[in-house]
Fold these 2 entries.
Entry 1:
Amino acid sequence: MRTLCIVTALALLTGVTACGADADDSIKALSSTTTAVPSDVSFPPNGETVNVLSLDNNFIPQVIEVKAGTEVLWENNGRNPHNVVPAEDPKATEWGVLEAAFQPKDTYSRVFDRPGTYVYYCTIHGTPKAAMFGTVIVTEP
Ligand SMILES: [Cu+2]
């Protein structure tokens, strides 16, 4: 619902009429909204949490889609240490957790406040594209 409000507001600002437009126009309005919003726009925490289990050796669910502002909570439910690191940042300097702090029963959480696609993996048991890896797709609220 909020996405529709944003589309309408942008349509008004840009002089495009969203109300009463046919399906094709609505799709165009929606895609132009996506490109019009800067990728570095961030949204406040929304109080929602989505859990991801880290098992031996995969993430379940492997792919999740959440609205910006959602907390993602990983729990190591396996019997071995794991880690959660961004595909392009194996040292987890931006976000993520290394195995020293992600032993069995440990948790790690992060609020994803910016829309985007975040690929991550466990460096011990996977690569960014195989085995123990996962994706968090963050959409606009
Ligand atoms: Cu692992």
Entry 2:
Amino acid sequence: MDKERLEFFRKYMATICPTGYEEEASRVWRDEASKFADRTWVDLHGNAIAVVNEGGSPRIMLAGHADEIGLQIVYVDKNGYLFFTGLGGWDPQILPGQRVRIKTDSGIVLGVVGRKPIHLLTPEERKDVVKLEDLWIDIGAADKEEALQIVALGDAAVLDYDFTELRNGLVVGRGLDDRIGAFTVLEAARLAKDLNPKAAIYTVATVQEEIGVRGATTAAFGIDPKVGIAVDVGFSTDTPKLDDMKKQIGEADLGKGPIVGRGPNFNPKLLTHVLAAAKANGIPYQVKSFSRPTGTDARALQVSRAGVATGLVAIPSRYMHSPSEVVHLTDVENAARLIAHTIASIDDDTDLIPG
Ligand SMILES: [Zn+2]
């Protein structure tokens, strides 16, 4: 990945954007988009939108969700400990002992997730899985009054982890699900612009995917596209303990190309276009079967209004919904190229009606 792109991605990954609190990430994404898009804006829901070739036809919508999973402060007890709920789907086992960054009106506040020490757990408690309600956040406040001068009810937090490079093209970060997707759709629109597209390309950093693909639902209604492509992370199966699961979920390795979805959530003729674009441009890909609507923005896109010809391009990812998700940058570049070439091949005469 070239230096300029990676620099933007680092800046984007440095933002804190838990579900429903995506404003900071949205600003960084739009700043970058405004370098090449015809125009950029934010809709009432918070979706960040950039359009390339606005007068073109048909309309194509690309969606990558900007939000990451987070925590939300619900209650402060008399001793100043903060109790929280999840924004999106957590594995609570990950949380004890972690530091968190709480996003407040006056800046970031550091806290730690507390739990009873192992020595003090009863034998029964040791066998139990950790639940969110067993945990609290300690910001070092003396009492409830002081805590509420520092944080407010409803403030959101993320784990205290930064984006960094691993080796062999692998990068690790908190919230790569799915800022990597929001990055990819922006990059795809940038590349497509140079391919003389006939279509108008609306690329969207959607909000609130992690609580039910909500941003993509409203953005798709507003944009009313003929074609929609979602980019999210997809499980890779190249780590220990997943061998047996390949029979149920298929397989994908990091570095072997983006995952392309096939199944009822996707338009078969659009898939043909995607695979043709891959072949014509020598782009590697990995096909995965999805037997039902995916838990991605593709789910909302497909059933918007009278239906949208929908596809999914996923970035193979390890350790999803942990603070150390891992992806391969080459897969990201290939995903953007694949989408750019696919949408550049679509015009008003492109028949996408199944049959
Ligand atoms: Zn996601």
